[in-house]
């Protein structure tokens, strides 16, 4: 047990700039889940995130000589703001290297707190490499966002407050996990004083570096990291944080983007505050845990870790919340191409509301429709809907979990391409900055024809793009080698059923 952390947490200097955040019960969510759900409101910190605790504790313990050199970090979000405020309070020069894809609101927030912002690269790894170069050239002190003893101890003060503020029994504390600093600090303190309380990490399924590390009993670098929950988009758990987590974490739960969006809505309904995706992870984890275990009457604490969300992202979050709450199903249905078919289909649905309906003529005998239908997670599920349609003789496919359907198909029209021979389909994540698309097209050149293209801004650091390319037989490997050189994340989706049904 990492007992050496207890004294460090008790002596941590955080309250010069951080505040003791309250614990609020979430009454609507508690009633729905039949358990007491408590939110530790770290979104109420001066920088709207818990990161100020660890950053200030670390910077406050630098020597005079280190302070004179100035501090630096690579960050696209909350650590940047926390370090900027900490340095400003202590009168220390701070430099923050941020990717060029960082939303302007976060760049402005860091500058407003007195730090100098250097924009470099399209991704965090490039910003990190450049920050290390500046350390060598300028002599700055690098302040790590999570893998540091003093940073971990600063985050651990959250656990100290939880036990002081809530004296009744606690069954489990759910903690969002990125690099592991938050859960290591909370877990070390809780397991020393109240070992019966379960410490449960919650990770976005596309950046689950702690879960993989615990399964393999070693730190692993993820080959690809999803950036929807950007506050926890970390490819490898920290070295020191993993050492602590192995001793204090009881389990790790992973959740989907849709479940995170639903959790953002849950927090809003109970608090009228808007969590960022990583800030809502713990609530999403509680919901998954309660459903899995079938528990009732327990006290479950979620760390609401931050509220630094771009306003533009709320469109995407609201779109996906109903799916995450299992209150909407997306299905592909084939109906006869004749007058009255749509009315008959609606009669089959009964009182279920249609949330979306997309249709284009397919052929003279049948029509394929893309339909969103309102469902209920407890009494009228999407499985019930599919079973009903099959019983009534409709060919139906459930697309609710199909990313292409949710990100692209529902916004596209046009139907099948009559001359789309040799079409291969790829889904991309482009860095959301001016020139990214032109850069792609310039590098692609004129060798392969683009036969389909869809892009929609989601207010995130990366744009989602669906592209169809006409590639002669035998040239696919050459295309993918070329795409690897361009460097954007991509997935082939030629065999995706949503594409085949509506566009292929």
UniProtKB/TrEMBL annotation:
CDD domains: ACT_ThrD-I_1, ACT_ThrD-I_2, Thr-dehyd. Catalyzes the anaerobic formation of alpha-ketobutyrate and ammonia from threonine in a two-step reaction. The first step involved a dehydration of threonine and a production of enamine intermediates (aminocrotonate), which tautomerizes to its imine form (iminobutyrate). Both intermediates are unstable and short-lived. The second step is the nonenzymatic hydrolysis of the enamine/imine intermediates to form 2-ketobutyrate and free ammonia. In the low water environment of the cell, the second step is accelerated by RidA. GO terms for biological process: isoleucine biosynthetic process; L-serine catabolic process; L-threonine catabolic process. Pfam families: PALP, Thr_dehydrat_C. Pathway: Amino-acid biosynthesis; L-isoleucine biosynthesis; 2-oxobutanoate from L-threonine: step 1/1. Residues 329-401, 424-495 form the ACT-like domain. Keywords: Amino-acid biosynthesis, Branched-chain amino acid biosynthesis, Isoleucine biosynthesis, Lyase, Pyridoxal phosphate, Repeat. Homotetramer. It comes from the Bacteria. The keyword Cell inner membrane does not apply. Its cofactor is pyridoxal 5'-phosphate. NCBIfam families: ilvA_2Cterm, PRK09224.1, PRK12483.1. InterPro entries: ACT-like_dom_sf, Ser/Thr_Dehydratase, Ser/Thr_deHydtase_PyrdxlP-BS, TD_ACT-like, TD_ACT-like_sf, Thr_deHydtase_biosynth, TrpB-like_PALP, TrpB-like_PALP_sf. This is L-threonine dehydratase. GO terms for molecular function: L-serine ammonia-lyase activity; pyridoxal phosphate binding; threonine deaminase activity.
């Amino acid at each position: 047990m990492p007992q050496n952390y207890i004294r460090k947490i008790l002596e941590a200097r955080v309250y010069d700039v951080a505040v003791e955040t309250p614990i609020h019960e979430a009454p609507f969510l508690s009633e729905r889940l039949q358990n007491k759900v408590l939110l530790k409101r770290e979104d109420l910190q001066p920088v709207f995130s818990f990161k100020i605790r660890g950053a200030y504790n670390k910077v406050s313990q630098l020597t005079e000589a280190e302070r004179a050199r100035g501090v630096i970090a690579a960050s696209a979000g909350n650590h940047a703001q926390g370090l900027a405020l900490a340095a400003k309070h202590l009168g220390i020069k701070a430099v923050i290297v941020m990717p060029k894809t960082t939303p302007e609101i976060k760049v402005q927030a860091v500058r407003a707190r007195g730090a100098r912002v250097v924009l470099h690269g399209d991704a965090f790894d490039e910003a990190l490499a450049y920050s290390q170069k500046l350390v060598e050239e300028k002599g700055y002190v690098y302040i790590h966002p999570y893998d540091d003893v003093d940073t971990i101890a600063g985050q651990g003060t959250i656990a100290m407050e939880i036990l002081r503020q809530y004296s009744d029994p606690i069954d489990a504390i759910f903690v969002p996990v990125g690099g592991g600093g938050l859960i290591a600090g909370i877990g070390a303190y809780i397991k020393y004083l109240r070992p019966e309380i379960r410490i449960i990490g919650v990770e976005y399924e596309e950046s689950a570096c702690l879960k993989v590390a615990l399964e393999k009993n070693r730190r692993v670098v993820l080959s690809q990291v999803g950036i929807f929950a950007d506050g926890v988009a970390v490819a490898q758990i920290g070295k020191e944080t993993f050492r602590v987590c192995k001793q204090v974490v009881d389990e790790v739960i992973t959740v989907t983007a849709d479940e995170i969006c639903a959790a953002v809505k849950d927090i809003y309904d109970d608090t009228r505050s808007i969590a960022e995706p990583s800030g809502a992870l713990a609530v999403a984890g509680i919901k998954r845990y309660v459903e899995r275990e079938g528990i009732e009457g327990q006290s479950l604490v979620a760390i609401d870790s931050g509220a630094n969300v771009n306003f533009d992202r709320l469109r995407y979050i609201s779109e996906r919340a109903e799916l995450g709450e299992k209150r909407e199903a997306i299905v592909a249905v084939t109906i006869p191409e004749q007058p009255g078919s749509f009315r008959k289909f609606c009669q089959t649905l009964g009182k279920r509301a249609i949330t979306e309906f997309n249709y284009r003529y397919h052929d003279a005998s049948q029509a394929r429709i893309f339909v969103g239908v309102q469902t209920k997670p407890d009494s009228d599920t999407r499985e019930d809907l599919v079973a009903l349609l099959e019983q009534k003789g409709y060919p139906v496919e459930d697309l609710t979990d199909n990313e292409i359907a949710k990100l692209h198909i529902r916004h596209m029209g046009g139907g099948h391409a009559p001359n789309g021979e040799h079409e291969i389909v790829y889904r991309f994540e482009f860095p959301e900055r001016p020139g990214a698309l032109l850069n792609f097209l310039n590098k692609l050149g004129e060798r392969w024809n683009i036969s389909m293209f869809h892009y929609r801004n989601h207010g995130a650091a990366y744009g989602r793009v669906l592209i169809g390319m006409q590639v002669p037989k035998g040239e696919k490997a050459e295309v993918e080698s070329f795409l690897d050189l361009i460097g954007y994340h991509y997935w082939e989706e030629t065999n995706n059923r949503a594409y085949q049904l509506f566009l292929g």
